[in-house]
Design a protein that fits this description.
- Strands 9-8-7-6-10-11-12 form a seven-stranded mixed β-sheet. A five-stranded mixed β-sheet has the order 1-2-4-3-5.
- It is an alpha/beta fold.
- It has helices spanning 2-22, 27-39, 41-46, 49-52, 55-59, 108-124, 145-159, 178-192, 216-231, 248-259, 283-294, 300-306, 335-343, 359-367, 375-378, 380-395, 401-425, 432-450, and strands at 64-73, 79-90, 96-102, 130-136, 168-171, 240-243, 263-269, 272-275, 310-312, 323-325, 348-350, 371-373.
- Among the domains are: 64-195, Leucine Dehydrogenase, chain A, domain 1 (Rossmann fold), CATH 3.40.50.10860; 216-378, NAD(P)-binding Rossmann-like Domain (Rossmann fold, 3-Layer(aba) Sandwich), CATH 3.40.50.
Amino acid sequence: MEKEEENTMNYVERVLEDVKAKNAEQPEFIQAVKEVLESLKPVIEAHPEYEKMAILERLVEPERVVMFKVPWQDDQGQVHVNRGYRVQFSSAIGPYKGGLRLHPSVNLSIIKFLGFEQTFKNSLTSLPIGGGKGGSDFNPVGKSDDEIRRFCESFMTELYRHIGPSVDVPAGDIGVGAREIGYLFGQYKRIKGAYENGVLTGKGLSYGGSLIRPEATGFGATYYAVKVLEAAGESIEGKTFALSGFGNVAWGAAKKISQLGGKVLTISGPDGYVYDEDGISGEKVDYLLEMRTSGHDKVQDYADKFNVPFFPNKKPWEVKVDVAMPCATQNEVTLEDAKLLEANGTKYLIEVSNMPTTLEAVEYLTAHGVLVAPSKAVNAGGVATSALEMSQNAMRYSWSEEEVDAKLKTIMENIYDACANTAKEYGMEGNLIAGANIAGFLKVVDAMIAQGIY
C-alpha cells in the first residue's frame, strides 16, 4: 500500500515538475494545475493505469493555443497593436466554451489558467461543453464606442478562423459585455456571410441572447452559497456578505442575495471599497449597472451617491461578515486577507471570480475552520446559462426568465451535490475543493479514454 501511495505521489509530482519546467513564466497556470493535481491523488491511487495512459500529461496540455496581433485605430487616427489569444484546452465533452477577457493584465499564463479551470467547470455543469478561454491585453476603460468597435472587429477578423457553433463558442468575461459581443458577432456574420448566432453567447436579446445571462454568474454563485449554508444547518436570511468588484458578477450576486434575505455590505473597485451598513439592495443594486457603463471604473461613485464610507486603496476583507464572496479577479484574497477574515469570524469563503484565493490563503482558511467553496463550481452558473443560450439558439426558441432561472438553480444545486458527494466518496467529506476537482476530472477523463489517444 505504501509503495502504491509513493508511486502515486511520484506520478503527480513528476507531472507538476514537468509543468513548472515547461511553463516557468506562467505562474497563474502553474498555480491552477498544482491546486487541481494535488487534490486528484486519491483518484490516481485508485487508477494506476492512468499513468501508463499519460492522463495527467494530456490533461495539462491545451489542445491548441492561438496567439495573434490585433491592430486597431483610435479616434485620433493613431494605430495601436494589442495581442490576442484563444486557448482551446479540451474538447473531450463538447465544443470549446469559455469567455473572452479584455484587460491589461491578460497574458498567456492567465488565459491558460482560465482555460484549464474552464474544462473542469464546464464538466461540472453536466452540459456537453469543453473548456477554452481567450482575450487580449486591450484596455476598454476610457475608450469610445467607436474605438471598442474597431478593436472588436479587428480581433474577430482573426478569431473567426478558429471558432464556430460546433467548434468553439466564446462568451463574455471581464471587459466584454453585451456591447462587445454585439460588435464581435457583427463582424463574424459579415465575414462568414451566415447567421450563426450559436457562435457566441452573452448576446443581446434581439438576436439570440438568453434572459438571465448577465446575472447568471452571480445568481448561480448565490444558489451555491445557499446550499453551503443549508448543509451547515443555516439559512441565507439575515446573513451578512462582503463582495468585491462591482461588475456583472457582483451585481448579479448582490441582486439575488438581497432577494433571498441576505445583506450585502461591501463592493469594491480598483480604487478601494465601500461599506454600506444598510445593505446594497433595490436602487443601489440597479446603480451598479450605471457605474459599470460610465467607464469611470471607480467604486467611489457609489459612496458619493449614497453617502456611505469609502476606503481608498483597500480591500473589503477587513469587514466583519458571515460570508465573503470575491467577485473581481484572480488572487485577490491573500494570506494577509485570509487572516483578517478568520479573525473577524467569517465562516464561509465562496469563491466567485476565477481562482480568487492564493494557495497559501486557502491552506490557512481551511486549517482554521473556514469553509472554502471553489470558484470552478461556484461560478459555473455563467457558463451553464451560456450553454442554455446555445440550446435556445439551436432550437430557434427562447425560454422565459422564470424557466431559465429555474434551470440555473437546478444546475447549481446539482453541482453542489456532486462536489459534496464526490468528496465524501473519496474520504474527504466537507472538502468542496477536492470534490469539485475530482468530479470534474472524472467526466473529462472518461470521455478522453473513450475517444482514444489525442
